[in-house]
Structures are given as C-alpha cells and as structure tokens.
C-alpha cells in the first residue's frame, strides 16, 4: 500500500524537482553564488522563521494532549492521546531548532561579506509564505492534517535541496573556489552542513510518519492535503528565486 507521503511526492514531480534542484542550490554547492545573493536569501529565511514559530505555536495550541482537553466539536475518530503527545513533541523540537537557526542567521549576517549590504526587510513572497503557514495552522482539521503536510513538505524539500547542494560540493575539484572570500565559502559550507545532519533527517522522517498516520479515506480530505502540498512546493520555488530578484505572481 502506498503511503500518503509517497502519494504526495508522486503528484507533482516537476514542481518538486524545481524546489530541490534550484539554481540557488547549484551555486551554493559549487561555491559560486555571489555574496549579495546569499545575503538576500539568509535575510529572508531569518524573516521567515518568525512565521514558522507562529505556525508551530498555533499548531501546539490546538494539540489536545489528553481526551478531556479536546475542543468542542472535535469529531476526529482517530484521536489518540499518545499520538497527540507525539505530535506535540515533534512540534516542540521544531520550535527549539528554528530558534537556534534564527540565532545562526543573525550570526551569519554579521559577517564581513554580508554586513555591508543594506537590510531589505521582509519581501512580499516571504510574507505570503508566512501568511499561508498561519492560515493552514488555523484552518487545518482537528488532526492538524493540512498543517502536518505543510510542515513535512517544507522540511522534506529543505533536506533534499541541501543534500543536492552537498553532492555538488563534494564533487568540486579541490581549490576550485578560486579567489572567493574564505568567510563566504565557510558560510556556504555551514549552511549545507546544517540541513544535512542526521538529526535533521530523523526529524523529517518523524514528520513523514505523522503525515502517514493521517486518514485518507475521505476523497475530499485527500484533495485538501494534496492542495496544501502543491502550494508549499510553489512557494518553496519562489523562496529560492528571491535570492536573486523580486518574484511576481506569474
């Protein structure tokens, strides 16, 4: 039987390819990305972490750890206290980890190659992504299905994307970074390492297990889960695009 995550990964392979094999990742992996473009991406990802934490907060606030804490109207027939606590534990880890990453981004932006660039603030597509996350967290079913799919999808994309960048980095010819600023090169290496650690892979796998535990017997519900998955892929592509330029609604 095909799992839900396998099904989702099969429905829009072209968009998934774009989200995990983007030019930004190619340039980071080959250490050829310009400092201003990496600065732009880091700045937006730091801005995005604020929305991520709000999404996690909304999801956590909706988790009923025990049966007597379930909201009025919660008719999820698959509710299980132990599973709810598993979800809570995963979300708590996500919050802790994104706080660490927010601090990491602040440190990276203070480094010599990037500190001199003007601060651009949150770009429109970053804001749109943040709004999307919060909307999904608020409107997801009582099992948090749509929100769990979004969480898994964006983390799965990040894992595969940075593994792709790492594969390019590992195939680089020794010394081929040329005259690149050593701090800039070290920053690219640090970013690649951060999202290819075994701990991160384990987290992504756990998110996948939570998604696979969702019921998909209702075709309308399955359609809803598919929709937020597709939207996440589209937004991830736009997010990489923003490293180079402003993106439009095309």
From TrEMBL:
<dbReference type="InterPro" id="IPR053261">
    <property type="entry name" value="Polyketide-peptide_reg"/>
</dbReference>
<protein>
    <recommendedName>
        <fullName>Thiaminase-2/PQQC domain-containing protein</fullName>
    </recommendedName>
</protein>
<feature type="domain" description="Thiaminase-2/PQQC">
    <location>
        <begin position="146"/>
        <end position="244"/>
    </location>
</feature>
<feature type="domain" description="Thiaminase-2/PQQC">
    <location>
        <begin position="15"/>
        <end position="83"/>
    </location>
</feature>
<dbReference type="InterPro" id="IPR016084">
    <property type="entry name" value="Haem_Oase-like_multi-hlx"/>
</dbReference>
<dbReference type="InterPro" id="IPR004305">
    <property type="entry name" value="Thiaminase-2/PQQC"/>
</dbReference>
<dbReference type="GO" id="GO:0006772">
    <property type="term" value="P:thiamine metabolic process"/>
</dbReference>
<dbReference type="Pfam" id="PF03070">
    <property type="entry name" value="TENA_THI-4"/>
</dbReference>
């Amino acid at each position: 039987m095909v799992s839900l995550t396998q099904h989702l990964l099969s429905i829009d392979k072209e968009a998934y390819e774009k989200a995990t094999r983007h030019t930004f990742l190619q340039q980071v992996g080959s250490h050829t990305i310009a400092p201003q473009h990496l600065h732009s991406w880091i700045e937006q990802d730091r801005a995005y972490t604020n929305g991520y934490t709000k999404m996690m907060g909304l999801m956590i606030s909706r988790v009923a750890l025990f049966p007597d804490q379930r909201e009025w109207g919660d008719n999820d027939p698959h509710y299980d206290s132990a599973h709810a606590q598993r979800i809570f534990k995963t979300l708590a880890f996500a919050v802790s980890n994104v706080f660490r990453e927010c601090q990491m981004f602040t440190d990276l932006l203070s480094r010599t190659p990037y500190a001199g660039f003007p601060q651009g603030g949150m770009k429109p597509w970053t804001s749109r992504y943040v709004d999307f996350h919060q909307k999904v967290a608020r409107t997801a079913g009582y099992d948090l299905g749509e929100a769990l799919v979004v969480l898994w999808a964006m983390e799965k994309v990040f894992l595969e994307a940075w593994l792709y960048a790492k594969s390019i980095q590992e195939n680089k010819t020794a010394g081929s970074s040329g005259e690149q600023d050593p701090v800039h090169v070290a920053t690219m290496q640090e970013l690649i390492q951060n999202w290819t650690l075994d701990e991160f892979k384990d987290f992504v796998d756990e998110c996948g297990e939570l998604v696979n535990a969702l019921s998909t017997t209702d075709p309308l519900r399955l359609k809803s889960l598919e929709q937020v998955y597709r939207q996440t892929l589209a937004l991830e592509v736009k997010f990489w695009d923003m490293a180079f330029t402003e993106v439009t609604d095309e």
